[in-house]
Amino acid sequence: MPSAPAAKNAKKPASKPASKGTQHAHGGGNGELLKHPLFDELGFPSDPNNLYRQTVSSMLTAADMMNLPHHLKIILAQPKNEIMVNFPVKMDDGEYRLFKGYRVQHNNALGPYKGGLRFHHDVHLDDVKSLAFLMTMKCSLVGVPYGGGKGGIKVDPYKHSKGEMERIVRRFTAAIAHQIGPDYDIPAPDVGSNSQHMAWIADTYSFLSEVGGRQPEAVITGKPIEYGGSVGREKATGQGVVDTLTEMLPEIGIDIKGCKFSVLGFGNVGSWTARILQDRGAKLIAVMDHTGGILNDGGIDAHSLAAHVSKAGGVANFKGAGRIDKEEFYETKVDVFVPAALEQMITEVEAKIVNCKVVAEGANAPTTPAGERVLESRGIEVLPAILCNAGGVTVSYFEWVQNKTCHQWELDRVDSELNKHMILAAKKVRDARKKYKCGLRTAAYIAALERLQAAYAIRGLFP
Ligand code: NAD
Fold first, then answer.
1. Which domains does the chain have, with CATH numbers?
2. If DSSP codes are grouped into helix, strand and coil, which group holds residue 263?
3. 287 CA distance to ligand 1 middle (Å)
């Protein structure tokens, strides 16, 4: 483990730990109301910091640029189904508590709805709608036969015993069992949920689905390997971030070998991105999560840090680095900065102080539109989330294929198939950028919308 240098500003205390989960503390915005005629037509919320309005506005920029027909814009600007359930669960002390759960099915023009389940005390319908919308765009871009969905439970999974969580997860599954299915809507893990939760969902669903139904476990991905999971799924999103960087960095003039990077959030996406990037020769300099920030100019060993986080619950008190505060974290000079925590964390404020050449979005929607404009004005390239973090859903698709064909793939096959999808998606984004002379996010949406437009053109609209 590298010795911790006197971190350049180690005198300041780490910033107060923020709560783990959906970020609404600073509202994620700058008070500017993004305008588009469709927002009034469809009655969008007029809160300028509303995540759903922000997310859809990026898509509409692309849709306008490519002259997407009006009917496709309105279809894609709203989810098909918004399901909310309230369900009672018995706690360990014998009392009952009522929980709220969500499943939003955004679009299924390309295949079954697909997307994770977030377990967090501050999950809101508009967050879930945004994330479901992003899944439609991501699945289209990365070339898997899925639409987009997302769900969640308003619960803090860290405040419940294992037994309580099992009852909550199983009761939620029962509440939505008739609205999901291996050929209709296939959930997966997201922030706060893990492979054990997925196993309970698959098991509960198998009891509630038709007797003799085929492969009930294919109703969900991100399962443990012992119960239908795929090798390589756990690291898949981080692997996809690294595959994207490998494709996109050369034309920005950065060599992965020797490049310096920082990571915001050291959970599944952040820690795997860091470990794989380090194994490719890059150097991790700074990390921040809900427990604080750490810095080591000489390099932080990502593998040792991952082991520390799995024991300690966060990066704080890691012996191989000094402590820094939030501003120092963002100001740390790196080549690549990977936000891999939550939505709306890179606002104008953070965008003005980040000291990097490239932002690789590991998290969904981490950059607000105002933050993005600042990054653009400073010449910082943003690799958009629907490209960068598409590795997770791609390997989820492989897991589903393995379940459906009763076959298990080797890790080499998973990694190389994933790499093919990521390379193709990156190429589509680069081509769209060249054709429309736009930023990478708009280019990624254009590439995603082109596939959806082609599918709608062939399918038509019922009736
Ligand atoms: P996770 O729960 O494993 O990790 C979340 C991380 O965010 C933790 O390290 C936590 O400490 C950190 N965090 C929370 N609040 C913070 C704060 N206020 N300041 C700094 N750090 C904070 O979640 P994950 O699965 O790694 O997902 C992270 C993001 O990536 C989410 O946006 C998720 O939707 C997205 N994503 C995940 C996957 C996947 O396969 N897991 C796939 C695609 C996208």
1. 34-76 (no CATH), 79-227 (3.40.50.10860), 236-388 (3.40.50.720)
2. strand
3. 13
